Amino acid sequence: MATQASDPIRDSEGEARKFSLVFGLDTFGDVTHDADERPLSHAQTIRNVVEEGVFAEQVGVDFFGIGEHHTDDFPMPAADVVLAAIAARTTRIRVGSAVTVLSSDDPVRVFQRYSTLNAVSNGRAEVILGRGSSIDSFPLFGYDLADYEDLFEEKVNLFAELRKGGPVTWKGRTRASLSNQDVVPHTEFGPFPAWIGVGGSPESVVRAAHYGFALMLAIIGGSPSRFAPFARLFHMALDKFGRPPLPIGVHSPGHVAETDEKAREEFWPRYLQIITRVAETRGFAIPTKESFTFEVGPRGALYVGSPETVAQKIAANLIALGANRFDLKYGMGGLSHESLMRNIELYGTQVIPRVHALLASRKEVA
Amino acid sequence: MTERIAVLGAGHVGPVIARIALDAGFRVTIAASDSPEKIALITQVVIPGAEARWASDAVEDADIVVLAIPLHTFVSFDPGLVAGKLVVDAMNYWPAADGVLDMFQDRRYTSSEVVQRRLTRSTVVKTLNHIGYHDLEDARRHAGSPERSAIGVAGDDLAAAKAVEEVIQRIGYDAVRLDSLSAGRLLEPGGPVFGALLRRPEFELALSVKAA
């Protein structure tokens, strides 16, 4: 876990949590455009993501995450390889998946890849597991969407066993059984941090608590406050299963620029284009100027604006949800690498210190 | 007059429907595929006021049963469970997102027509399927509000459709009736209102343009 010991914040019931604040950046490897609005190659996009991860450490970001995707817009099927490149050039920043689509992966391989990444990075790797809200990996690897729930349930169960360390005995329907199997590499510092990404299913919240994984709330549309009951549910479920408290994080999309106007001007056309393209398979409504204005406003889910605007919104929602971690999903297909670097710089040098200050001053008042 | 609503399904959609039904003053029971103990905590925290039961007990005294289960599990759903009931079909057939299901592949029929043909002893009304579960709660408005959105209600049985329309109005939406489950195609994924929040005039316009 991050060792930075500052600013434990209080949840919605005023209970102090012992977890330190963590601020991360997530990317799906969104294909960027050059100055002439031409998309860069997949290879160049990936090299740019490495630069972005290294730069994130330099400007003070705590975590850099890469979300697995398998499409032309998001050529990021091997996040762990890219994370290893970032880890090799950094010393402090934590690296992890955001998310690993566990349903269509092999838990043994996921454990091996991320325990290897922990070896490479001296214990800085973590994993966020998801069922996959974009389902491209299912047909690609020959999985049936009808098994969506069962695949995830079984594989989370096996991953929880693997994460404990030591030989594993396991039986299920979705992969070969294991009998007293030693799975290598062994971790140096015990179980590495593991989260479950939850989009809106209370059953997933309870599942995370059941297996002792931290909770990452993926809030990509609508009012973040509607997730407050999920935070309460998580705490109560941990209690019920006799587990110690675990952290809660928030993952949301956004874009930071010098001013609100600039951030919106850069982000909106790309957002409209990407959401329109994925609307059919993801069930998103096509955004309108009106819905966008709501989402970037104080009650919406997008963190698009100046450093001050974005910091205020992050602070407010961490408090409302009793969360101690915020991961900004930056980048949107079609933006330039330069504007992403600027976003990262502003997030690290201005947004993060400002949120720390906002939460610290609130604590003094309380 | 509807007083009791049973929600079958405790995934993404079921708890949201249960919560807004409670808010509107209905008595709500909820069931998942398993025992009520499994969803007791979820019910207590996320749907306070609802009663978690076994599915067969949940529907027993319900005036309306809302089906909010993944469509692929409907393939093995026991029709006897909702025999004699007014069933609201809030499910969608959406191969791009959920995969292909043979039972629903004959596109001459809407998914709700297939559901009705399987639930021979129930009366099926299609609604609550075309607004995202994350919007369903936030977008509610009182009657007369200029911001009130519309929800389509499609059914072959007029009395059943009217009963469901009343529920829709009470939970905070204008109900727009489509006169058959077949016409309910306009509410399906890929249709003109799917995923969109539209006020009644825009909603009716979107339907009429597409139907014309």
Q: What's this, in brief?
A:
By secondary structure, chain A is of the alpha/beta class. Helices cover 43% and strands 15% of the residues of chain A.
Write a concise keyword list for the protein shown above.
heterodimer; A: 366 residues; alpha/beta; TIM Barrel; 8-stranded parallel barrel; 11 helices; B: 212 residues; 8-stranded mixed β-sheet; 17% strand
Describe the structure.
The complex is a heterodimer of chains A (366) and B (212). By secondary structure, chain A is an alpha/beta fold. The radius of gyration of chain A is 19 Å and the shape is globular. Chain A has one domain (22-365): TIM Barrel. Chain A has eleven helices and twelve strands. Chain A binds chain B through residues 135, 138, 144-146, 148-149, 199-203, 205-206, 221-223, 226, 229-230, 232-233, 236-237, 240, 279-286, 291, and chain B through 10-12, 15, 32, 39, 41-42, 44-46, 70, 72, 94, 96-99, 101, 132-135, 137-138, 189-190, 194-197.
Outline the fold blueprint.
The complex is a heterodimer of chains A (366) and B (212).
Chain A: E1 22-27, H1 42-58, E2 63-66, H2 79-88, E3 94-97, E4 100-101, H3 107-120, E5 125-130, H4 137-140, H5 148-163, E6 168-170, E7 178-181, E8 194-198, H6 202-211, E9 214-218, H7 228-240, E10 248-256, H8 260-282, H9 289-296, E11 303-305, H10 307-321, E12 325-329, H11 337-365
Chain B: E1 4-8, H1 14-23, E2 27-31, H2 40-46, E3 51-52, H3 55-60, E4 64-67, H4 71-74, E5 86-89, H5 95-98, H6 111-118, E6 123-126, H7 133-138, E7 150-155, H8 158-171, E8 174-178, H9 200-211
Parallel strand pairs in B: 1-2, 1-4, 2-3, 4-5, 5-6, 7-8
Antiparallel strand pairs in B: 6-7
